[in-house]
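My current task is to audit a protein record that another person submitted. I need someone to confirm that the token line plausibly describes how this chain folds. Take the sequence as given and treat only the tokens as open to question. This is what I was given:
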Amino acid sequence: MTGTAGRAGTAGRAGTAGTAGRAGAAVVRGVRRAVRWVRWYVREVSGESVYDRYVAHTRAHDPDAEVMSRREFERRRTDEREADPRKGFRCC
């Protein structure tokens, strides 16, 4: 009798472990999705994704064109914003 009860108890736990595993996997997927969204949001707000879009646009329209380095791109971008007060770079 002891052997039969032991096996039945194990089978019940295995089913529960599978359900808990699926629930845990769903939580992990949700956390990963939230982290990806926060990363995307921070990159958009900070302007970090602008360079990636520039590179994709340049390569899509002219694959042979030379792509500026990130440093050169940011320098030109800053110079353009400072040169035109309408862009809102400076308050005064």
Observations:
- The first helix runs from residue 2 to 46.
